[in-house]
Amino acid sequence: MEEVGQHEVMPSRFETNIVTVSDMQIPYAAEGRAYFIDVDKGKYLGALNTGYWYGGVILPKKRNEIISAETYFERGTRGKRTDVVAFYDPITLENTGEVIIPSKRMTPVKPQGTSALTDDEKFLAVVNVTPATSLSIVDLDKREFTAEIEVPGCTNVYAIGDRRFNVICADGSFMNIELDDQGQLAKRSRRAPSFNPQIDPVTNSGVRVDNSWYHVSQQSHVYQFTTAADGNITTDKWDLLTKEEREDNWRIGGMQNLAIHKASQHLYVLMIQGGPEEFEDATDQVWVYDLKTKKRINMLELENPAWHISVSQSAAPRLYSIGVNFHMPHLFVMWIYFTQGKEELLKMAKWGFDTYDASTGEHIFTIPRIGTLPNLIQPWK
User: CA 310, 314, 315, 318 torsion: positive or negative?
Assistant: First the structure.
């Protein structure tokens, strides 16, 4: 018989490899969730209730706490709106406080780049859209809101130092924001455009190595944006595809479609074969590239088509994905697909958290039924 009334706690992240999966809880978006998974044991650990239209937790490497930008309405789905930066104990998952920020936090389906932590983990920037765009700055040591900084025409934010952020702008340029030690605006400058968003827009699924952020574009190019000490940004662009692969209609797929293993300098990209309208669809193809040679070195086939991927930073890396599981015989899946179409098939899909060997693509385990619309994977290492 199962015991009731037990009080469970989380294992230490310093002793256990923990991954979080964020879930927007569509169609009931008022109760977003952050799920915690022990990827050593393939075990579900617990969850946080994270408010309306959730956008992912912030997982510091030095601070012993979980941070979360959240939105609430006083009557559930209506009434006065309150946006907060909330703090949670990483062992008990109990709330330890919050900071009220301006009630204009951006809440997109693809949450990467909606908040950023400075490299010294003192300040957090949260993106606002009303549709005017700005950043809310929170001092995490003092747990105080310090400033709202206007970033006209710019949205997704990426940290690039102890007091510096880059914000991607609608014309393909970057706005560089520099803070002082009080969390106030010290300097704001806008660079020349680094890409053409009308021809080849980049996705917000950026991954970072040192002072470089890597993004992939809708036309399946890799962009490396490197920020110098003076804030100047240089751009290196290269192609994911050969001429033959383009002719065969290969392109980037998925939503969180990019991951990197920093030690090996291997870049993992979700790829799909299909028309332009399918570039954000789930796919079972992960192509691996060497950043030094800019060449593909591997092609992994996933057990289940995935919308989101991430990679651990261990010596023997693991690939994580949010896979589309149908929990029915393969022949029945194919029969529905060919007789009723993809849209009807997706109505029957359930989401699972899949783990693979990132070198061979070997499927290790699946945790089934993880949320209703999971939209972000974050390893806590």
Answer: negative
In sequence order, the 6+-apart residues with CB closer than 8 A to the CB of 353 are: 19, 21, 35, 37, 320, 321, 322, 323, 366, 367, 370, 374, 377
Sequence-separated (6 or more) residues with CB below 8 Å from residue 331: none
Residue whose pair of structure tokens reads 């959240």 in the numeric block: 70
pLDDT tens, 37-84?
999 999 999 999 999 988 889 999 999 999 999 999 998 888 999 999
CATH fold for domain 253-381: Methylamine Dehydrogenase; Chain H (2.130.10)
Task: Give the span between the Cα atoms of 376 and 310, in whole angstroms.
Answer: 9
Residue intervals in the chain for CATH 2.130.10.10:
253-381
Dig out the tokens for 116 from the structure. Answer: 């950023």
Tokens of residue 224, six digits: 């490396």
pLDDT value at residue 344? 64
Predicted pLDDT of residue 4: 72
Domain 109-208 bears CATH identifier 3.90.550.10: no
Alpha helices for 1-116 (secondary structure H): none
Q: In terms of Cα–Cα distance, which of 342, 216, 332, 323 is closest to 278?
A: 342
How is residue 356 annotated by DSSP?
E
Section 267-281 average pLDDT: 91
Contact indicator for 66, 47 with CB cutoff of 8 Å: no
CA 42: distance to chain centroid? 21
At 117-150, the pLDDT tens digits run: 999 999 999 999 999 999 999 999 999 999 999 9
The residues pairing with 101 across neighbouring beta strands, listed in sequence order, are 83
